[in-house]
C-alpha cells in the first residue's frame, strides 16, 4: 500500500472515530439531562454548534461524514429483515399497506411540491 | 437452523451482498439491482428456507444498525454547508415540509383506519415519509414498531422515486426548489438519488430537506402523541 493511500485511510478512521465519539457524547448527554431525543440528534446539534463557533470546519469531517451518509443504506438493511417475523401480517394486510403507502406518498409529493412552488411564485411577484 | 459454528454468517452475507449489489448497480444503473431491493431479496432468499427468525439475524447484525447513530451526526455537515440556501429559502422549504408532514401523517392515519388496519401497523405507518434514522425513533415515540417502520420507509422510497419522475412531467414546476422538495419530502434517501439525476440544485435541495424533515417530525412527535 502506498503512502498517500495509507494516510487517506488513517484520516478516514480518525474522522469516523470522531463522529462515533460525538454520537456517544450525544447519547450520554440525552440520558443525563433526560432529553427525549436520540443520541444521534444531540450529536448533530453539538456538531452544528462546533461549526457555528468556528472550532471545527466541515471539511475536517468531510471524508467520514460522506462515507457514513453514502453507505447509510447498509446500516438500515438489517432492520428490513424484520420482514422475517411479519410474513403472516404481509400475507393478510400487504395489499392494504401498499395502498396506504402508494396513495399517501403521491399526496405528500403533490402537497409539498405545489406549496413550495406557490411560495416561490408569490415571492417572485412581491419582491423587487 | 442453528448456525452457531459460523457466528458471523449473517453479517458477512449482508456485507458481501451489499458490496456486490452496489458494484452491480453502479455498473448497470438498473434500479432492480439497487442494494435497497437486491440485498433484502438475497437475504430473505437465504433466511426463509433456513427458518431464521429476525432475532437470530439481528443478533449478528445489530452492529450495522448502531452506525445509524453516527450517520445522523454526520447530517450536520450538509445542513451547515447549505445554510446559505436555507437562509434564502427557508419560508418556502418550511411551508413545504409542514404541508408534506401534515399530509403524510393525516392521509396515512385516515387511509389506515378506512382500510381497518391494525393499530400498531397504522402507528408504524405514520413516520413513513422521513429518513430511516429519524423514522425509527419517531415510530417508537408513537407506539409503532421501529423495524416495521423501516420496511415502510423503504417501500415509500422505492415507490416515491419511481412516481416522482412521472409527477415532474405533469406538474408545472418552474423552481428547482419545488422539484427538489418533491423528492426530498416524498421519497427521502431514494428520492435524493433520483433528484440528483434531475439536476445538481434539485439534489442539494432534496438532501437538505430530507434531513430537516427528519428533525421537524422528531420534534413534532411528542405533540402528535397527545393528539392520537
Detailed description of the structure:
Chain A: InterPro entries: LrgA/CidA (IPR005538). The complex is a heterodimer of chains A (128) and B (228). By secondary structure, chain A is mainly alpha-helical. Chain A has helices at 3-32, 39-53, 62-70, 72-80, 87-126. Chain A folds into two domains: 1-85, no CATH class; 86-128. Chain A contains five helices and no strands. The longest helix of chain A has 40 residues, at 87-126. With 228 residues, chain B is an all-alpha fold. Chain B folds into two domains: 9-66, no CATH class; 73-227, no CATH class. Chain B is built from eleven helices and no strands. Chain B has helices at 9-28, 35-47, 54-66, 68-74, 76-81, 83-114, 119-125, 132-142, 146-170, 176-198, 200-227. Chain B is globular, with a radius of gyration of 18 Å.
Outline the low-pLDDT stretches of chain B.
Answer: none
- CA-based gyration radius of chain A: 22 Å
- Straight-line distance between termini of chain B: 41 Å
* Helical percentage of chain B: over 70%
Question: Beta-strand level of the residues of chain B, as a percent range?
Answer: under 5%
Low-confidence stretches of chain A: none
- State which percent range the strand residues of chain A make up: under 5%
Mind summarizing the main beta sheet of chain B?
A: none
Mean pLDDT of chain B: 90
Structural class of chain B: mainly alpha
Global shape of chain A: extended
Count the helices of chain A. How many? 5
Summed up, the domain count of chain A is 2
- Give the number of DSSP strands of chain A: 0
Helix content of chain A: over 70%
Give the helices and strands of chain A as they follow along the chain. Answer: HHHHH
The outline of chain B comes out as: globular
Total domains of chain B: 2
Amino acid at each position: 500500500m502506498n503512502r498517500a493511500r495509507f494516510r487517506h485511510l488513517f484520516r478516514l478512521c480518525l474522522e469516523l472515530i470522531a463522529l462515533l465519539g460525538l454520537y456517544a457524547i450525544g447519547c450520554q448527554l440525552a440520558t443525563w439531562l433526560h432529553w427525549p431525543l436520540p443520541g444521534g440528534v444531540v450529536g448533530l446539534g453539538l456538531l452544528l454548534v462546533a461549526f457555528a463557533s468556528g472550532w471545527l470546519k466541515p471539511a475536517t469531517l468531510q471524508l467520514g461524514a460522506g462515507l457514513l451518509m453514502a453507505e447509510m443504506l447498509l446500516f438500515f438493511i438489517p432492520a428490513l429483515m424484520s420482514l422475517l417475523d411479519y410474513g403472516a401480517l404481509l400475507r393478510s394486510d400487504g395489499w392494504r399497506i401498499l395502498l396506504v403507502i402508494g396513495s399517501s406518498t403521491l399526496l405528500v409529493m403533490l402537497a409539498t411540491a405545489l406549496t413550495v412552488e406557490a411560495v416561490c411564485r408569490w415571492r417572485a411577484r412581491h419582491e423587487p | 437452523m442453528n448456525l452457531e459454528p459460523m457466528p458471523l454468517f449473517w453479517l458477512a452475507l449482508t456485507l458481501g451482498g451489499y458490496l456486490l449489489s452496489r458494484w452491480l448497480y453502479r455498473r448497470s444503473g438498473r434500479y432492480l439491482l439497487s442494494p435497497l431491493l437486491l440485498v433484502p431479496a438475497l437475504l430473505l432468499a437465504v433466511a426463509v428456507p433456513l427458518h431464521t427468525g429476525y432475532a437470530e439475524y439481528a443478533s449478528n447484525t445489530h452492529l450495522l444498525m448502531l452506525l445509524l447513530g453516527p450517520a445522523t451526526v454526520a447530517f450536520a455537515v450538509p445542513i451547515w454547508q447549505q445554510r446559505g440556501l436555507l437562509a434564502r429559502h427557508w419560508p418556502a422549504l418550511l411551508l413545504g415540509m409542514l404541508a408534506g408532514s401534515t399530509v403524510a401523517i393525516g392521509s396515512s392515519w385516515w387511509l389506515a383506519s378506512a382500510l381497518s388496519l391494525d393499530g400498531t401497523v397504522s402507528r408504524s405507518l405514520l413516520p413513513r415519509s422521513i429518513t430511516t434514522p429519524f423514522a425509527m425513533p419517531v415510530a417508537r415515540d408513537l407506539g409503532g414498531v421501529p423495524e416495521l417502520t423501516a420496511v415502510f420507509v423503504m417501500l415509500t422510497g422505492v415507490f416515491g422515486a419511481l412516481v416522482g419522475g412521472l409527477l415532474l412531467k405533469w406538474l408545472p414546476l418552474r423552481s428547482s426548489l419545488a422539484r427538489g422538495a418533491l423528492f426530498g419530502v416524498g421519497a427521502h434517501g431514494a428520492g435524493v438519488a433520483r433528484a440528483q439525476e434531475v439536476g445538481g440544485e434539485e439534489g442539494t435541495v432534496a438532501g437538505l430537506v430530507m434531513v430537516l424533515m427528519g428533525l421537524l417530525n422528531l420534534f413534532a412527535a411528542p405533540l402528535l402523541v397527545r393528539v392520537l
